[in-house]
Amino acid sequence: MSQSHQGSIPTNALLGDVLPSPTSSQIENASHLFVSLSELIQDNIFYHPEIGQHLDTLSAEDKAHLDTLLNGHTVDEHFVSTLGKLIETAIKPQHKHIRICLSDADSYAYRALIGGNIEKNEINPAIGLRGVSRFASDEHTHSFELECKVIKALREKGIDIEIVVPFVRTLSDAAMIIDRLAVQRLPRGLNGLKVLYCCDAPAAVLMADRLLQYFDGLVVNTGNLTQLTLGVDQHNESLTSLFNPEHEAVLMLMTQAVKSASNANKPCIVYCQNLAQYPKVQDTLAELDPVQLLAAV
């Protein structure tokens, strides 16, 4: 985020960096780092994480592209080492918290990758197989394991990584993902491991008091929350005027999420792209307890 936008940021916010960042600059003295595995995969890996399990389905062209990317390594080796190096390089001394968000991309985004034919067609990808539902499905077990390997590799280097779980829709989702992380040798609490969850849908906010019994904090994904609260596809240009993070319903949910986290004495991180364009969101955050803010522009 460029420094010129910081005048619009609530003064009570603890600012953080985002990886990958929409801009090349980082925030001076940012106190935390938020890593989106989905975006790193799309920007740097280029192939579907499950591609190693489906090599026989690739076209000759895709196979050639994949071989070039792998450069003699296996898919698993390349995936884990590439993401690990990118994340490790982005960590700065002032980052007190490094949080990695497991993949929250939908099937439409995954289909654009090399080997994307692995994905089944969904009528409504935005509300389809995402987050916990994806991690728990038989078709995507291996990619979940790979993401866990990235986190374990970094933690084994002494980096205190925290995990963020996207698209937690129900209490059973919460229990399931905590169990599945434990199976991957990432049990919440062991060696101080913290696990947070994303408020992507209104249900995750409305159930926050109970969901926070399973997690160590929450992240408000303003983009997803706006999309699912208003029923507006944020990527549909004909609906651009309807996608509004300043809608009263979105601000009410954001406020409730922050208060629920505060009542539980757990951190709340608000991720709002283009925050400088939304003065009502700024004012709402300024009136609340100090939040950790990701204000990508």
TrEMBL record:
Molecular-function GO term, any one: metal ion binding
The keyword Cell division appears for this protein: no
Family: Belongs to the PEP-utilizing enzyme family.
Name of protein: Phosphoenolpyruvate synthase
Source organism (scientific name): Vibrio rumoiensis 1S-45
Pfam families from the UniProt entry: PEP-utilizers_C
Domain PEP-utilising enzyme C-terminal span(s) in chain numbering: 103-289
Entry keywords, A to Z: ATP-binding, Metal-binding, Nucleotide-binding, Pyruvate
